[in-house]
Amino acid sequence: MCRWALLAVLILSPAALWADEVDPEPVSGGKGLLGTWEFVRAIGQGPAAPDEMKITFEKGKLTVSLGPKEVRAKVHTFDVDARKKPAHINLIDSTSNRRVEGIYKVEKGELFLCIGERSGKRPAAFDGKDEPVFVFKVSKK
Fold it and tell me: What is d(CA 133, CA 45) in angstroms, rounded to the nearest whole number?
C-alpha cells in the first residue's frame, strides 16, 4: 500500500518533485547569468553606455561598474524568471529601493539585457525600439 501512495504522489505532483529537472534556472536563481559580463554594444536609441561598463551577477546581487577603475559602481538586487518568454529580470536599486522590470536572453555567449527604464514597463522585445538593448560578452564565470 505504501508503494501506491508514493506512486500517487509522483503522478499527481511531478512539477513539485522534479522542479530542478523541469526548470533548470529557478525563478529567483539566475544561474546562467552568474559571473562578470563586459559591454559590447547597444541596439536602439538611448543613453550612451560607457565603453568600459561591466556587470557582475552574484547570487541575488547585480553590480554595475562604469569606467576603467570601476569608481562608480551601483548595486542592485535581482530576480529572474527564465520560464517566461522572453525571460524576465527584475532589478531593485539598493539605495532608492526603486524596482525596474526587464527582459534578458543569453545567445552564443552574449547577454542581451533590455530594461524598462524609460517607459516604466517591462519591454516585450529585443528590437531596441522602446528601450535600448545592451549586449554583453562573458568576461569571468
Answer: 9
Using alpha carbons only, what angle is made at residue 136 by residues 127 and 34, rounded to the nearest 5 degrees? 115
Domain 24-140, classified CATH 2.40.128, yes or no: yes
Q: Which helix (H) or strand (E) holds 14?
A: helix 14-17
Question: What pairs with residue 91 in β-bridges?
Answer: 78, 100
User: What is the reported pTM?
Assistant: 0.74
pLDDT in tens, 26-36: 444 567 899 99
Cis peptide before 132 (omega within 30 of 0): no
Q: How many CA atoms, within 13 angstroms, populate the side-chain half-sphere of residue 37?
A: 23
- Separation between Cα atoms, residue 137 and residue 39, nearest integer Å: 7
Q: 35: exposed, middle or buried (C-beta count within 10 Å: 0-12, 13-18, 19+)? A: middle
